[in-house]
Design a protein that fits this description.
The chain is α/β, with parallel strands linked by helices and 221 residues long. The chain is built from six helices and eight strands, in the order H-H-E-H-E-H-E-H-E-E-E-H-E-E. 45% of the residues lie in helices and 21% in strands.
Length: 221
């Protein structure tokens, strides 16, 4: 046991030494800079900030930064065409779980301005729902460069519970590269499923002659 502790102490000591050397090297580099070098560095950072701000304003002008409902299939194609990253929620007013998705997407739209977040009522989009094979409500279509890259169907990828966190949905969108995700893709946020979570059942409803599966709560006694 003592031998293992000695090895661990040496490893920690070596790691600390490497980190210290890196910090010293960076400080040394800064100390060697003259006023012109520092001015160029300042200008470079300022330019990067201006570029980032310009990009953000461009996104906002295209409807990014807020979670919006679009009126029709025609609007969908226009919205997708002008933005690189798009998350579209196909919803139905009578499906309770769509309201849960709404709550989380409202938060994420403000956080991830680089992505456009929209919603479309399936009753107003029979052609598009057929084309994208939307059969379960809610469904999120994740689009990059005008092409559908992935789907989040129901809550199966979110822990199979109504009480999943915004962070869990954020992680799932990050897995599809439709948002700039700063967390670890390989490790989803920890989830503890609370007791009393309602059992899921699939109920069928018809919209304009089409049948959709609704990933909704069981109301059976």
């Amino acid at each position: 046991m003592a031998n293992q502790m000695d090895i661990l102490a040496k490893v920690l000591e070596e790691s600390a030494r490497i980190v210290e050397e890196k910090v010293d090297a960076e400080l040394s580099k800064l100390n060697e800079m003259d006023e012109d070098d520092l001015e160029r560095l300042k200008e470079k950072r300022l330019e990067a900030l201006k570029k980032a701000q310009k990009q953000k304003q461009e996104w906002l002008s295209k409807g990014h930064g807020e979670y919006r409902e679009i009126a029709s299939e025609k609007d969908f194609f226009g919205e997708v065409k002008e933005s690189k990253n798009v998350v579209c929620h196909f919803y139905r007013s009578s499906t309770f779980r769509c309201q849960i998705i709404d709550k989380h997407l409202t938060i994420l739209a403000k956080k991830h301005v680089e992505t456009k977040f929209i919603k479309l009522n399936v009753e107003k989009a029979p052609f598009l729902s057929e084309k994208l094979r939307v059969k379960i409500i809610p469904t999120l279509a994740l689009l990059i460069d005008g092409k559908t890259k992935d789907y989040v169907v129901g809550f199966a990828d979110l822990g199979n519970t109504d009480e999943f966190s915004t962070e869990m949905l954020e992680w799932r969108l990050g897995c599809a590269d439709v948002i700039n995700y700063s967390g670890n893709i390989l490790e989803p946020p920890t989830m503890t499923q609370k007791s009393g979570t309602k059992i899921t059942k699939v109920e069928k409803k018809t919209i304009r002659g089409r049948t959709y599966d609704s990933d909704s709560d069981s109301e059976d006694d």
